[in-house]
Amino acid sequence: EVQLVESGGGLVQPGGSLRLSCAASGFTFDIYDMTWVRQAPGKGLEWVSSLNWRGMSSYADSVKGRFTISRDNAKNTLYLQMNSLKTEDTAVYYCARGPRNSNYDVRGQGTQVTVSS
C-alpha cells in the first residue's frame, strides 16, 4: 500500500522551531519529487516547499530562509525543519508525492502545527 505518514506537529510559541517528518512506504521513494503543502483554517491548500529527486529544493516566499526541506532516502523519509515560526504558519501540514503544482497523487493525513503564545 502506498502511504505517507506525517508526524512532528504540535503547539509552539512564536519564534520557536519544529521538525516535521513524513514516512513513505509502498513505493520507490528516492525517484520521486516530494512536496510539503499546508492548509490554514478557512483557507485553501498552500504550497510550502518541494525537493526533487536530484536534491534541488524550492520554497514559498513566505517561508524562505526559515524552513528547510530535506530527505533521507535510506529511511524513506521527508523532513521539514521549521524555524522562527510565526502565528501565520499555523496550519495542517501535509506531505505529498510529486513536484510543485502537480496532482499530488498521494498525500498524507496531515499534522497540525499551531503557533501561539
Brief characterization of the structure:
The chain has 117 residues and is mainly beta.
Describe the structure.
It is a single chain. It contains no helices and ten strands. Strand 7 (67-72) and strand 8 form a beta hairpin. 31% of the residues are buried. It has strands at 3-7, 10-12, 18-25, 34-39, 45-51, 57-59, 67-72, 77-82, 91-97, 111-115. The protein is mostly beta strands and 117 residues long. The strands form two sheets. It has a six-stranded mixed beta sheet with strand order 2-10-9-4-5-6, with no helix packed on it. The termini are far apart.
Ordered list of secondary-structure elements with their pairings:
Elements: E1 3-7, E2 10-12, E3 18-25, E4 34-39, E5 45-51, E6 57-59, E7 67-72, E8 77-82, E9 91-97, E10 111-115
Parallel strand pairs: 2-10
Antiparallel strand pairs: 1-3, 3-8, 4-5, 4-9, 5-6, 7-8, 9-10
Strand order of the largest sheet: 2-10-9-4-5-6
Distance between the termini: 40 Å
Structural class: mainly beta
Number of helical elements: 0
Q: What helical percentage do the residues reach?
A: under 10%
Largest sheet: 6 strands, mixed
Judging from the principal axes of the Cα atoms, what is the shape? globular
Uncertain stretches of 5 or more adjacent residues: none
Order of helices and strands: EEEEEEEEEE
Average pLDDT level: 96
Number of strands: 10
Rg from Cα: 13 Å
Strand content: over 45%
Task: Please give a handful of descriptors for the protein shown.
117 residues; mainly beta; 6-stranded mixed sheet; globular
